[in-house]
Design a protein that fits this description.
This protein has 342 residues and is mainly alpha-helical. The chain has helices at residues 30-49, 58-72, 75-95, 107-119, 124-143, 171-180, 186-195, 199-203, 238-250, 270-282, 289-302, 307-314, 319-322, 330-336; strands at 3-7, 10-17, 20-25, 210-211, 216-219, 232-235. Strand 4 (210-211) and strand 5 form a beta hairpin. Helix 2 runs antiparallel to helix 3 (75-95) and helix 7 (186-195) packs antiparallel against helix 9 (238-250). It is elongated, with a radius of gyration of 27 Å.
């Protein structure tokens, strides 16, 4: 057993190896001394049980995690994860500059990270998202045998306010948007409203992704792009199928289904700027492209489509995400018993 002792202004660790007493100075900082004691206890336990030491430098873990992200994640997701690990490294440099090994981590450090980010003004939802990525990195450290256990186990997320039901357009507002938009935007908005695609999914949609015979639209991984969640297929209704057939005749030279007014791929944020300008002119309120995705899901729910099907069509990885539309099912639940006639 190892024991931490204080003498004067310094800390020492007493322990025995093969019956021989060893005394090791660990500096004047109590925090460093406690971490050194924990590290030594782990080493002694491993040695007593005949285990091979599993520990990695912190920098190696960060480097390997970045390499993992480059291989397995889409560019936009890699960029977001890199920003999160940068925040975490900035926190460690500011408050725990002496941490060098994965084994030095304890749950309290992640509690301090939450406080650090809140002091910077980050919202609870943002901090929780960052904890998910950090937890993932340490879970991989265990899988890669860089650590014995995940130090984030038991670290709780911050409480969030109850989710507000998303804004969606009425049928009249949808028609108003479609009638008044620019010619090249009409098939774009119409497809959003009939498929619930994410913006990046629509922007990267290619003609090879559309199966006109089966009336299916495929969201699949490309060489330079990957969907946010798993690949999926979305059925195409008759009206959308007619529109896409017409769109293919007019846009046959491009591999992309939708292009901008200059016939090139739709650049980032162009759709966002267009819909915000149009919504302001039409007095539709503060909406964006994602509002059209919510409109698709909301109208399906109001027409009686179950949430499990909505989850599949929307490409949600978790049913909890789909539950933001659950309030729209209340009238259908209330009216369900009226269909009985015993």
């Amino acid at each position: 057993m190892a024991t931490l002792r204080e003498k004067g202004n310094a800390y020492f660790i007493d322990y025995r190896i093969n019956g021989k007493r060893v005394r090791k100075a660990v500096g004047k900082s109590k925090k460093i001394a406690e971490l050194a004691l924990k590290d030594l206890e782990v080493k002694l336990a491993k040695g007593a049980l005949g285990f091979v030491k599993k520990d990695s430098s912190l920098q190696k873990l960060f480097d390997e995690f970045e390499s993992y992200c480059k291989t397995n994640l889409a560019p936009s997701t890699r960029k977001r994860y890199r920003a999160i690990t940068d925040n975490f490294q900035r926190f460690l440099e500011a408050e725990f500059p002496y941490l060098e090994k994965v084994s030095h981590f304890a749950p309290k450090i992640f509690e301090d990270f939450k406080r650090f980010r809140k002091d910077e003004g980050a919202h609870n939802r943002t901090i929780n998202s960052e904890l998910v990525v950090i937890r993932m990195m340490f879970r991989l450290a265990v899988q890669w045998h860089y650590a014995e256990k995940n130090p984030t186990d038991g670290v709780s997320k911050l409480k969030l306010p109850k989710k507000v039901a998303p804004r969606f357009l009425s049928e009249a507002e949808c028609q108003k948007l479609l009638i008044n938009c620019e010619k090249w935007l009409y098939p774009v908005f119409y497809t959003f409203l009939n498929t619930g695609l994410r913006k990046s999914e629509l922007e990267n949609l290619e003609w090879s992704d559309i199966d006109f015979d089966r009336k299916k639209l495929k969201i699949i991984v490309k060489d330079n792009w990957a969907p946010k969640t798993n690949e999926r297929e979305i059925p195409i209704n008759d009206s959308l199928c007619k529109l896409l057939t017409k769109q293919k005749k007019q846009n046959s030279l491009s591999k992309y289904v939708f292009t901008g007014e200059d016939d090139n791929k739709i650049f980032k944020n162009r759709l966002l700027r267009r819909i915000k300008t149009l919504a302001k002119r039409l007095k539709l309120g503060d909406i964006n492209v994602h509002t059209l995705r919510h409109t698709f899901a909301s109208h399906l729910v109001m027409k009686g489509v179950d949430l499990t099907t909505i989850k599949q069509l929307m490409g949600h990885s978790d049913i909890e995400t789909t539950m933001i539309y659950s309030h729209l099912t209340e009238d259908h639940v209330n009216n369900a018993v009226d269909k009985l006639s015993f």
